[in-house]
Amino acid sequence: MRKPIVYGLFIIASVAVGVISGVSNIPGEWYQQLNKPFFNPPNWIFGPVWTVLYGMIGAALASTWYDQNNTRRLVVFAVQAVLNLLWSPAFFGMQNPVLGLTIIVPMLVFILLFIAMSWRPNRTAALLFVPYALWVAFATMLNLSIVMLN
Predict the structure, then answer these.
(1) What is the pLDDT of residues 22-37, one digit of tens each?
(2) CB 12 within 8 A of CB 57
(3) Predicted model pTM
């Protein structure tokens, strides 16, 4: 397949998986009743931010897919992706911020590891992950704060 088609498919698939995960784990009354830190953003911000991030994640994966010697980076990518998919069901579905925290911390580590491993062989993929790392670092602080306040 031509690269633009593959990029498009990876981006669409990544956004679709993110949307399915978000729709399947909508914060309910339980979340609304939690004590949250002063820096908790409004709920409407999460959907647009994650949509953009999932698009960038898909582009980073497509870019990495074409690299030589990409196996270790693809494994690291897969681990962070699995952890990403586990976080919402743990935090919202099981209503368990502590379990969410035990998932999001290693998720952030694997995101940072992907950036570090990609920096030289594929700077584009690494840079596409930087906003994701910043958002997940923020989400980790938010998750930790919710654990501490509740």
Answers:
(1) 878 878 889 999 999 9
(2) no
(3) 0.94
Kindly give, in sequence order, each residue whose CB lies less than 8 Å from that of residue 52, ignoring residues fewer than 6 positions away.
131
Of 56, 50, 61, the closest CA to residue 18 belongs to: 50
CB 19 within 8 A of CB 51: yes
Question: Which residue, 142, 22, 83, is CA-closest to 150?
Answer: 142
In Å, what is the CA distance from 25 to each residue of 14, 32, 38, 89, 128? 17, 14, 23, 6, 25
**pLDDT tens digits, residue range 48-96?**
999 999 999 999 999 999 999 999 999 999 999 999 999 999 999 999 9
Query: What tokens were used for 15?
Result: 């956004």
- pLDDT computed for residue 132 by the predictor: 98
SS3 37: coil
Cα(123)–Cα(79) distance, integer angstroms: 20
- What pLDDT is recorded for position 1? 63
Cα–Cα distance between 39 and 58 in angstroms, integer? Answer: 28
**Helix 71-88 and helix 97-118: axis angle, to 10°?**
160
